[in-house]
Amino acid sequence: MYETFEHRADIGVRGYGKSLEEAFENGAKAMFSVMVDIEGVRPVETEEIICEAPDIEILFVEWLNNLISHAHLSGKLFSCFKVEITENSLKGLAIGERIDKNRHHIMTEVKGATYSNLKVDKEDDMFVAQCIVDV
Amino acid sequence: MDIKLLNKISDYIWEIPPEGEMRVPGRIFGCEAIVEELDDNVVTQIKNVACLPGIQEASIAMPDAHWGYGFPIGGVGAFDPEEGGVISMGGVGFDISCGVRTMRTGMTREEITPYIQKLVDRLFAIVPAGVGSEGKIRLNQKQIDDVLTGGAKWAVSNGYGYKEDLRYIEEEGVVGGADPAQVSETAKKRQFKEIGTLGSGNHYLEIQYVAEIYDESVAQVLGIKRDDILVSVHCGSRALGHQIGTDYLKTLAEASRKYNIPIHDRELVCAPIDSPEGRRYFSAVYAGINCALANRQVISHLVREGFSDVIPKARISILYDVSHNTCKVEEHMVGKKVKRLFIHRKGSTRAFGPGRKEIPEEYRTVGQPVLIGGTMGTCSYILTGTETGMKLSFGSACHGAGRAMSRTQAKKKWRGDELLKGLASQGIIVRTHSYSGAAEEAPGAYKDVTAVVDSTHNAGLAKKVAMVKPLACVKG
Predict the structure, then answer these.
(1) Which of A29, B38, B65, B470 could, after both became Cys, cross-link B72 (CB 3.0–4.6 A)?
(2) CA distance A125 to chain B (A)
């Protein structure tokens, strides 16, 4: 499950999951849902992403920022994610397709994920990963 | 916010007295109504910045201040490296050196009216804008390094504009001290196709007319009069700047821990100016500044081409070019001493007073032009820097209207197509690549730019010279 939330000038992205990995995967979906209707992005091409950080919360921001730069450089959009986390390192897959301007209406450009409202936590039985993205 | 918590210095200057770990007071500029409207989060951010090592005089917020990342947007902080001063990502932001360039056209409103539709169509066609747009220039690794050290000067020597243009750009179009080696390969690659593109969001290109002159003699020095047609461009360092931001967010997070810097908010991650990490970030920011200056120079060239296709007699000359997301080294008086300080301006325009050597000679007696962008339905302002501003805000002024409403709220409230129809009925032609993007930028989603500029003027930070109104706007 994922959602976005309001922030005065920008927008927040939030992913929930039964595991930390699932929360990260859904957080990525939330971010791409800010850019485009992800239902219309076919999961046909895969990019591999590896990153690390001093702590688990910064790792979430690194993950999102790596997705932004990979998407930009490859000219793709992603809609499906698979993440493995070992301590504060992440190995992930981002699956999507090349931007097709006829099918993908890109609403917003995300400049970067920030440390604002950044939280990676376990609430009751659910993990949650969230932050504000600068648009 | 509760205005009773502030010390009133004058009708337009308010102070947050130092408390806890604040090293200096907070200083807020604005009329009572603006300050009352300030979000409590902005006040917390002003206080947090005041706690950073090496900060000088005050943690400052402009009349357009709103909730930012670490620093408020509209925040200014000056840091002395000799007092352990820091350089912070929060004080620069993701869109390094985003700014405004205003050009004269040599045309009047009456002369341009028959051509306006054709002109805006032409500019919309040749100035790349919107998400994912690409420029005509393709750069390779070596060329991007030249852009990062050469700025607008690189653009001019590659045929985009005239040497004369450079004199009317802050830093004469290029900052020394940029080091491309401190910019990641990813950041450079992301910029290969983006030089000469406007981008999206609040970035724009606007054809404007001078609607009002407040100071005839200064306007004459700046070469503008009532009903003159101007073109203003608002954009920044594009993907390269964003990537420098994300790269150094992590570097500075690590540095904050390494140097044990007491930060009250993780968004204020920073490094001592005199540390390897601080020096690296600073030279990367300078590379980002040069990228933005080159970008606006290439866009100006496209504007020249567009005008020459439609109205060959138009003559485009640069009035001035300001950046409002920077950290720069400048000399300022602190007490009786001239100090070399690192001035962070996050959503704040440099506004140097008369006499400063950095100002082009023709303008030096009146102060640096300060270009304040409004929204596509309201107006923009041209001001000049003052001696008072040098003393109160390290020569800084506001940068725009400042958002009053979130993008999500704006999209719920307005529909892009209806908004554009409404603007058309007021005589403002808007061409956009995204209706939803236009709705996010609805004039009603912003604070009143006139109130912001009046407060800036009345506080003495900069002096009003002219007000300009939009005739046509190209949005990303």
Answers:
(1) B65
(2) 27
